[in-house]
Design goal:
The structure holds two protein chains of two kinds.
Chain A lengths: L2 E5 L3 H18 L3 E6 L2 H8 L4 E5 L9 H14 L2 E7 L2 H14 L2 E6 L1 E5 L2 E8 L4 E7 L4 E5 L15 E3 L9 E8 L12 E5 L9 H10 L3 E4 L1 H5 L21 E5 L5 H4 L7 E6 L6 H4 L2 E4 L2 H9 L6
Parallel strand pairs in A: 1-2, 1-4, 2-3, 3-10, 4-9, 5-9, 12-13, 12-14, 14-15, 15-16
Antiparallel strand pairs in A: 6-7, 7-8
Chain B lengths: L1 E5 L2 E3 L5 E3 L2 E3 L5 E3 L1 H14 L6 E7 L3 H10 L4 E6 L8 H13 L4 E7 L9 H10 L3 E11 L2 E7 L3 E8 L2 E5 L11 H7 L4 E4 L14 E7 L8 E2 L3 H11 L3
Parallel strand pairs in B: 1-6, 1-8, 6-7, 7-13, 8-12, 9-12
Antiparallel strand pairs in B: 2-5, 3-4, 9-10, 10-11
Helix pairs in contact in B: 2-5, 3-4
Classes of the chains: A alpha/beta, B alpha/beta.
Chain lengths: 313, 249
């Protein structure tokens, strides 16, 4: 079981898994294959990246049923003699990871942000204690399931085309059925890719101040992001703007944190920014030691003054 | 039909200190995570019209009974607990076995609720592993749920879309915190919580007291190093100078 199998239903995540898989393959001498389920476009996309693809066509919507996906992955791993199965640690991938690991008796690491291979052994690094620490872990079972944090590994470029072979799988009867799919209320902004982020926290006193933060972000050529409560409790911004452990991990060259206290669950998502600048009333807040430049001041006064330095709408 | 709500006892993360890059957990109180509280509130709301019970389910060490009181005060009718010191900091695969065995010994379970991840590790594995062990269908990241004859209709919240799913019962679900606001129990409810029924299993009761092979080996745990300048600014003008020098040309 020296080979590697990768799966994600999202092309960009699958391409990230391919590059991580290539890194492991280079160190262990294994061969890399990908699974694709009811997605001929994804098969072609992956084959163009030099990967041999096992393609499953099945009735219904197996991608939404973790038990069916675990069965498809198990079969694909058996056929390709794969000991390492790489999934994306997005919501869908994380859900499948635990089920697959249980059904093949494998140890599993989710939310892996870094990988290291020494003498054939893979070490994964993930956050623990809400992000206060990083744990370095290795799976001790023969087979291992590793779910990698999206947006961390580079997407593999196109290469010498690989093949697409169909794979017959006996899936268990579906017990999760898809009735409808709704697009999520987002506005298309991609905070993971933004070079400049203006992040607002609960120190913002009222929703009206958001317009000022947006003006600053626009002036700096960036996007507005937020801490979790701003999106889930106050509902001022869509959830795809959340930075942190339960949101996105961002690496902007400049992050301006406005009214963010700097709880550890948030810092996980912004720790890799090149420069962090923060404004907060409380100079004892954890954000003070998280930043390169810190202005201890009341946002009520700072926001309009700072926004005034950028062109209006 | 009874609903189980799985809750994990976690250290109060606001009180974890770092010394020499290592976490210091002595005297840090243990509590129920916020998402678990939301899961409990959602289960309580779902059962309001139904005859079944809301049963809190947890596996942990000897402190568990104290921690679980809070859940009993916040609306659970009963508790099913697996208590053993070997369950402190247990890895996902082992916690899942303990929970699955306890679920098998509980009558008329229709749904098992989990938070999308535990507050401390957020690994999200236990829910899927429990579903796998029981051979039940599962749905993660649920934002809304209602019951129909023999099934649950739920909204799964993914990064870029929502799926409306129909899931056969019994099933295992994990919920996102938006599903419900955690309930703050009244003083009377807290006083009554101690008298609610509890079923306590040991690992031996569940046939799990033999040696357990490790699925994951932890090699090290360190606080990430931060090398920030930590310069204090005095005015918006100074702030503006910094922003202008750092933004992309």
């Amino acid at each position: 079981m020296k080979n590697i199998l990768v799966y994600s239903d999202r092309p960009e995540s699958a391409a990230e898994l391919v590059s991580a898989g290539q890194l492991i393959a280079a160190a262990t001498g294994g061969t890399l294959r990908a699974l694709s389920v009811n997605a001929p476009d994804l098969s072609a996309f992956l084959a163009a990246r030099g990967i041999d693809v096992l393609e499953v066509r099945a009735a219904g919507d197996p991608v939404t049923d973790a038990a069916q996906m675990a069965a498809a992955l198990r079969e694909a791993a058996d056929r390709s003699d794969a000991g390492v199965i790489l999934l994306s640690s997005g919501r869908r991938g994380k859900e499948i990871a635990g089920r697959l690991a249980q059904e093949i008796g494998a140890g599993c690491l989710t939310d892996v942000g870094r990988l290291d291979v020494v003498a054939g052994r893979i070490t994964g690094v993930r956050y623990a204690l809400g992000g206060a620490t990083e744990v370095f872990q290795a799976v001790a079972t023969d087979r291992q399931v590793l779910a990698l944090r999206p947006g961390v590994f580079p997407e593999a470029p196109e290469g010498t085309p690989g093949s697409v072979q169909s794979l017959d799988v006996q899936l268990p009867a579906p017990r999760v059925r898809l009735r409808a799919v709704n697009a999520k209320a987002g506005d298309g902004a991609d905070i993971e890719k933004a070079e400049v982020l203006v992040v607002v926290g609960q120190g913002l006193a009222e929703q009206g101040e958001l317009a000022l933060a947006e003006r600053i972000a626009r002036g700096l050529g960036g996007e507005v992001a937020c801490t979790k409560p701003v999106a889930t409790d106050r509902r001022w911004l869509p959830e795809d703007r959340i930075v942190g452990l339960s949101g996105k991990t961002c690496r902007p060259s400049l992050a301006l944190l406005l009214g963010v206290s700097g709880q550890v669950q948030f810092t996980v998502g912004i720790r890799d920014a090149v420069t962090i600048v923060a404004v907060n009333r409380d100079d004892q807040a954890p954000v003070a030691s998280l930043s390169d430049y810190f202005l201890p001041a009341d946002l009520k006064a700072v926001l309009p003054e700072l926004a005034g330095k950028f062109p209006g709408p | 039909m009874n609903i189980l709500i799985a809750m994990k006892q976690v250290p109060d993360l606001q009180q974890v200190r770092i010394r020499d890059r290592k976490p210091v957990l002595d005297d840090v109180p243990l509590l129920m995570g916020d998402i678990d509280r939301s899961a409990l509130a959602a289960a309580v709301a779902l059962q309001e019209a139904a005859a079944g019970k809301k049963i809190v389910l947890s596996a942990g060490d000897g402190n568990l009974e104290d921690t679980v009181k809070e859940a009993l005060a916040a609306g659970a009718d009963e508790a099913v607990l697996v208590i053993d010191d070997r369950l402190r900091d247990a890895e996902s695969a082992f916690s899942a076995r303990a929970l699955a065995e306890a679920i098998r010994r509980t009558d008329d379970v229709g749904l098992v609720f989990f938070g999308e991840g535990s507050a401390d590790n957020y690994s999200g594995q236990v829910m899927s592993r429990v579903a796998g062990l029981l051979g039940w269908p599962q749905a993660g990241y649920v934002r809304e749920i209602r019951l129909e004859e023999g099934k649950a209709v739920l909204t799964r919240s993914l990064e870029d879309r929502e799926e409306i799913l129909e899931v056969d019962l019994p099933a295992v679900v994990s919920v996102v915190s938006e599903i419900a606001q955690p309930r703050t129990p009244s003083v009377t409810a807290i006083l009554k919580a101690g008298r609610k029924p509890k079923t306590v299993f040991s690992l031996a009761d569940l046939g799990l007291d033999g040696p357990q092979p490790k699925a994951v080996e932890t090699l090290d745990q360190l606080a990430p190093q931060s090398e920030r300048k930590k310069l204090v600014l005095k005015s918006v003008e100074e702030l503006m100078d910094v922003l202008r020098s750092k933004e992309k040309p």
